[in-house]
Amino acid sequence: VRAPLLSRRVCLVCRESCFFFLMIRRPPRSTLFPYTTLFRSGVTAEFNKNLLVRINRELEGDFELSNFDHEAVYDQEAGRVAMHLVCRRACSVRIKALDLEVDFVAGEKIHTEDSYKYSPDEVATLARASGFSVERHWTDGAERFYLGLLAPRSR
After folding, report:
1. CA–CA distance, 97 with 86 (Å, rounded to integer)
2. pLDDT tens digits, 16-38
3. Helix, strand or coil for residue 89?
4. Which of 74, 153, 90, 83 is nearest to 111 (CA)?
5. How far apart are CA 120 and CA 106, in angstroms?
6. Which of 29-43, 55-69, 113-127 has the lowest mean pLDDT?
7. Which of 44, 105, 129, 144 has the highest CB neighbour number within 10 Å of its CB?
8. What was the pLDDT predicted at 55?
9. Are 120 and 82 in contact (CB under 8 A)?
10. What would you measure as the largest C-alpha separation in the chain, in angstroms?
11. What's the whole-number mean pLDDT along residues 73-85?
12. What does pLDDT average to over the chain?
């Protein structure tokens, strides 16, 4: 369990109590697996490809969005969704602001994100290891989403 990640990021902003929202780790074949709906709707793909849109706009890149497909792979053991943009065909991309040209081969991946999912028990373990306690938590009726109220433990 990745306690240092929680402690470094949360402790910077949480002096009293704070809310912690996440998707609950679910078996991928479960009808309660919430990521499936997001993947099928195209929302996640659009979000992922927005990285290329922003590079084009903010760094004067010339990514052709149709050259890249969104890929999301769920690793149940790690509790992680890994997001990639996969090059569909060989292409060359120029990023003017960085004076950079990048050649891609078909099938080459750009790793854009790791999104970790935790069970309620893992959240409690992370909280304890990071100097917090879970004061209270709520889930939706299907236990897909979790909202926890974390408070620093007294020293």
Report:
1. 23
2. 666 555 566 665 554 444 455 45
3. coil
4. 83
5. 40
6. 29-43
7. 44
8. 97
9. no
10. 57
11. 84
12. 79
Residues 39-59: b if buried by 16+ CB within 10 A, e if exposed? beeeebbeebbebbeebbeee
At residue 22, the pLDDT reads 59
Fill in the amino acid letter for 146.
Y
Q: Is 124 exposed, middle or buried (0-12, 13-18, 19+ CB in 10 A)?
A: middle
Measure Cα distances from 25 to 22, 99, 106 in Å.
9, 42, 32
Q: Is the pLDDT of residue 143 over 80?
A: no
* Residue 98 amino acid letter: L
Structure tokens at 97: 């602001």
What are the structure tokens assigned to 118, written together? Answer: 């935790």
Residues 6 or more apart whose Cβ sits within 8 Å of residue 152: 14, 15, 16, 17, 131, 132
Place of tokens 């890994």: 82
Alpha-carbon distance of 20 to 148, in angstroms, equals 5
